[in-house]
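Severity: low
Component: inverse-folding endpoint
Summary: output formatting inconsistent between runs
Steps to reproduce: submit the following structure tokens with default settings.
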């Protein structure tokens, strides 16, 4: 095949971690295999599912050899993704969770952007949240890369399933940190925006649907998400930012998950204390609640200091 043809049709590897997602994984796999860009492989790394996932994987792999999979116990999603990345043969790599979906032609748009004259190492695009039935919930709060690295401290504006990278970028970023149980993708984006400045492209279309349901990490592990977000901002940016904590508190109080700021802090404290220095914990103990948090917590007036060490 001529070299020009190879450039036009690169092999794209999509990695997919999986654990007991039989309800969603077939649709997720189908959204990959049905992409208009046909030169692809899908590598599913399953953590030892017991809910019927393996039967689905076996059936779909027989029908389409572009799907490869393995199942064995792992140390969580980051470990599974690292193992799948090590098996990727493509010059470009995508990462789709086993409950998320690509939109039609998403891969082709990403490939075109990665092959554009601007020569990006990573691209991402718009996304939307859907529920367990596939109904639209909300648009993901995506921002374009021009807003810069520092804006990530306000919250993650890169929706993980929309991301595609050149394989060399995966090598440069290094493996995901398996000690992170929820924010391992955010850790990668912080590294990417710091190291690949000017080399991150944007697809101005909805590239993926990110599914929110009761068993997903985003909803189930909100305490861990908040704690790891605070620690990663401290690690990469060098300052302690409390906005992730206040956002978590607002959400928890709005959803009736806690009755006071003290209960929320008691839930967060062990996760923060395991990673942050004692001086950081001293700063956090003196943070006052926003007026919105105080209002939601029932107008608690005498919370000085609001955050206390259990």
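Observed output (run 2 of 3):
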């Amino acid at each position: 095949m001529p070299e020009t043809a190879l450039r036009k049709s690169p092999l794209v590897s999509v990695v997919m971690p999986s654990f007991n997602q039989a309800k969603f994984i077939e649709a997720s796999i189908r959204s990959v295999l049905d992409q208009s860009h046909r030169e692809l492989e899908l590598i599913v790394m399953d953590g030892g599912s017991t809910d019927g996932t393996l039967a689905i994987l076996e059936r779909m792999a027989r029908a389409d050899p572009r799907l490869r999979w393995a199942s064995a116990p792992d140390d969580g999603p980051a470990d599974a993704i690292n193992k799948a990345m090590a098996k990727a043969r493509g010059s470009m790599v995508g990462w789709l969770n086993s409950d998320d979906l690509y939109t039609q032609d998403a891969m082709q748009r990403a490939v075109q952007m990665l092959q554009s004259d601007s020569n990006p190492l990573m691209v991402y695009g718009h996304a939307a949240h859907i529920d367990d039935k596939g109904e639209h919930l909300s648009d993901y709060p995506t921002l374009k890369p021009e807003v810069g690295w520092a804006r990530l401290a306000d919250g993650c504006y890169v929706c993980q399933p929309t991301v595609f990278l050149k394989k060399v970028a995966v090598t440069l970023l290094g493996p995901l940190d398996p000690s992170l149980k929820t924010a391992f993708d955010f850790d990668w984006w912080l590294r990417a925006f710091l190291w690949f400045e000017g080399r991150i492209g944007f697809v101005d279309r909805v590239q993926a649907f990110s599914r929110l349901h009761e068993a997903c990490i985003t909803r189930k592990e909100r305490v861990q998400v908040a704690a790891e977000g605070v620690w990663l901002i401290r690690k990469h940016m060098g300052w302690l930012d409390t906005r992730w904590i206040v956002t978590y508190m607002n959400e928890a109080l709005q959803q009736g998950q806690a009755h006071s700021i003290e209960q929320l802090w008691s839930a967060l404290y062990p996760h923060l204390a395991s990673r942050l220095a004692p001086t950081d914990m001293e700063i956090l103990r003196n943070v006052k609640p926003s007026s919105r948090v105080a209002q939601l917590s029932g107008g608690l007036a005498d919370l000085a200091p609001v955050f206390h060490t259990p």
